[in-house]
Design brief:
By secondary structure, this protein is of the alpha+beta class. The chain contains 1 helix and 10 strands; from the N terminus they run H-E-E-E-E-E-E-E-E-E-E.
């Protein structure tokens, strides 16, 4: 006959035996999460960002970019966001120009070496005076390698 014959003693002994496995599984999951690299996106010649709320697409003058970005699936092979694009009209000149804004859908992909290397910007059907053709922009170590959103 076993020493643990009382039902409560059996329950406590069973729970104690299960705890190390549960604690071990939890510790393993935490360690795996800590080891997972944070995906980044390269900014215009000033470092990197993780899931940025804004992103400049024209590094030369800052006249084109994205704001109010809300990301999903950041760190996975492909991440998506909704937000708004801004474009300087350069009318009458770029210095005195006005900014147009419109809703966009953004996708980053080509995750390699912990950084995304492609951004695709598609307007949400309300871009003033333009169609809805998406624009793909390669991202290098110094940020976007093009200064235009226009197709």
């Amino acid at each position: 006959m076993s020493r643990l014959t009382h039902p409560l003693a059996v329950l406590v002994a069973g729970a104690a035996a299960a705890m190390p496995a549960t604690a071990s599984a939890h510790a393993h999951a935490v360690a795996r999460h800590r080891r997972a690299p944070k995906a980044v996106i390269h900014l215009c010649a000033r470092g990197t960002a993780v899931a940025p709320r804004s992103y400049v697409l024209s590094c030369g003058d800052g006249g084109t970019g994205l704001v109010k970005l809300h990301w999903t699936h950041w760190g996975e092979r492909t991440a998506t966001a909704t937000g708004r694009a801004f474009v300087n009209t350069c009318t009458p000149t770029c210095v005195a120009g006005h900014y147009l804004t419109y809703p966009v859908k953004v996708t980053v992909s080509h995750l390699s070496g912990g950084a995304y290397h492609l951004i695709v910007v598609a307007d949400a059907g309300k871009r003033p005076g333009h169609g809805s053709r998406p624009t793909a922009i390669r991202i290098g170590r110094r940020g976007p390698e093009t200064s235009l959103i226009v197709p």
